[in-house]
Amino acid sequence: MKRKSLRFGKGFRIAIGNARGNSAEMSIPPGQSEGDAHNRHSGADQWLFVVEGKGVAVVNGKRYPLHQGSLMLIEAGDRHEIRNNGKDLLRTLNIYVPPGYNKSGDPLPRARA
After folding, report:
1. E-state strands within the chain
2. For a disulfide at 44, which of 74, 84, 85, 100, Cβ 3.0-4.6 Å?
3. pLDDT of residue 113
4. How confident is the model at residue 108 (pLDDT cuts 50, 70, 90)?
């Protein structure tokens, strides 16, 4: 069993994980974004849950509104960007299956089947 209290500080930080998946907390200031039109996780699905704030997810060129309580599945290989278009921080909890990042927050290569 693993446990952690999330703080949602600045930027993107890996929270906890194991060999089957990991989680990260992300805080995006107003007017900023994470990712771009080329951002993708080739080997991991990303579950994104909005804890606080408003924004928009651009997935494979299509825009989806985000607000507190939104849950989104960004599948492996989907190009995506998360933008904060609100007035406050956009805070999200992200789950990656299998793990998408190492403990330092660097992307992992695609897992072998």
Report:
1. 11-18, 21-28, 33-35, 45-52, 54-59, 62-67, 71-74, 80-83, 90-97
2. 100
3. 47
4. confident
